[in-house]
Amino acid sequence: MLEKNLERVLQTTKRHLERLKTLGLKTVKDLILYFPRDYSDTSEFTKIIEIQTNETVAIKGRIKSLFNITTKFGKKMTRGVFYDDTGFIDVIWFNQPHLTKMLPRNQEIILMGKAKFGFGKLTLTSPSYEIPKKFEETIHSGRIAPVYHETQGISSKWLREKLKPIIDNWLEYFKDYMPEEILDEHDLIELKEAIKNVHFPESDASLLKARERLAFDELFLLQLKVLQKKWFYKNTVSGDIKAMPQTEILKECIKKLPFTLTNAQKRVLMEVIEDLKSTIPMSRLIQGDVGSGKTVIAALAALNMAKNGYQTAVMAPTEILAKQHYQTFIKMLNGFGLNIQFIAGSTTNSQKEDIIRQMKTGTVDIVIGTHALIQEGIGFKKLGLAIIDEQHRFGVKQREILRSFGTPHLLAMTATPIPRTLAITIYGDQDLSVIDEMPPDRQKILTKVVSETKRTQAYRWIDDQIKKGRQTFIICPLIDESDTIEVKSVLQEFDYLAQHVFPDLEVGFLHGKLKQEDKDKIMADFKENKISILVSTSVIEVGIDVPNATIMLIEGSERFGLAQLHQFRGRVGRGEHKSYCFLFTGKLSQEGQARLKAMEMHDSGFKLAEIDLKLRGPGEVFGLKQSGIPDLKMASLTDSVMIEKARRSAEWIISKDPYLKTYEELAAKVAELEKDIYIKD
Ligand code: ADP
Ligand code: MG
Question: How far is the CA of 212 from the centre of ligand 2 (A)?
Answer without folding.
Answer: 39
